[in-house]
Amino acid sequence: MKILGESVRTLHFTTIGEVIKKYREQGNLSISQLAKISGVAKGVIAKIENGDTKRPELKTIMPIARTLGIPIPEIIEHHMKIDERPDVLFELIHEAIQLGNIPLVTKVALRFLQTPYEESHILMERLYRFVGTLADKSYQQPLYDVIIKYAREHGMQRFLARGLLQKFLIDIHDLKKLEESFRLGEEALHYIDFLDQEERVTLYYQMAFQAHDMKKYEKCIELGKLGHAEDPTANETKERIALAICNSFYRLNHISALDEHLTMYEKLGYRFIAERVKYYRAVVLAKKEQYEQAIPLLYECVEESTKNNRLARVNFLFELLLKVNDVASIQNILSQEDTNTAFDFTTPYRFSELGRYFKQKGAFLVSKGSFDEGMEAYLQGMEYFAKINARKDIMECSEAIYTFHYDLGKEIKLDLLGKLRKVFNRVNQSDKGVENH
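Now predict its structure.
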């Protein structure tokens, strides 16, 4: 039951007893009445108010505070000053989380780490493990920030490394913060020796995946191989990293290295490679400009594809068909657009493949005289690239649009300029959001 309204202003007193007494008097309640409503014994309340109980239990204070309408954040802030016992402060962290008050959560967490009642590394370990159990990432991120800052200031490299790793693993899911999260991962790499083997493998693998998605292909190869060197086990992630390494060699046009690694991974029995050998053999043939052999092989790869890897194969086939100017086959690909673009939007790589598809579609349509439709395809490609802040790809699409208008002597329509502006505004807003973070 709440006696006082929200209009009662927050007051600051020396003791929690003074706070309770002031609010009780403003609510025109006697100690007996407060005891009856709150369920806390009259004698207990009296001792708190007159200062006989210097550090009242939180479980005693809370029902009194809720009855009197005392702001809970004020109670928490006051209580963490008068009672620095680790268990009490840990309970206050829980209370602040229930309030949804993130600044207060971090404030109490820092106080918890500063308490003189326990060794710092024990307190840090307890807080670190607790943060890992939280399902809500909105609390995890600021609490890892507390851990990182405190560990950095107190030379606790083990927890600095672990905090940076965990924050990186959260941030990589934000497609608008890829560069920022990658820098965070790079900082964690400086403290790699303070991580255990499983943590090192996780960092190397996840950074390799992200490097691949960001088209940092040399980094992907480097980090992926470091992860492989640390990982003696057989597992799916290890094989997916091998696949990312092979794809990076292909993107870098290192065909001999691609061929060498395909053979090595096949001998190691990597299923993900074995299932894709035909595709990469087609890649090798295409890089050697042996299109008559590569294209039929790619058609087989498209037919054997899954929903989630189909578009990458279609895009490569599209690219080769453009080179040989096979108009009928390209039109057939475009007629199956719904099938080719139906997959789960879960990674930056897949958004990039969508952008790539519409970029190629735009080039083809313009070359066949469907100018306006081509411009729309380029815009669609830019929209997908904007979702992952792929500035280089966005600029390439934009340059193609302006170049086609200039070369063909066409005026840029106002509605097209408006759509281009919206894409660039979206990217700029994303950049501002990262700067303000």
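DSSP finds 25 helices and no strands in the chain.
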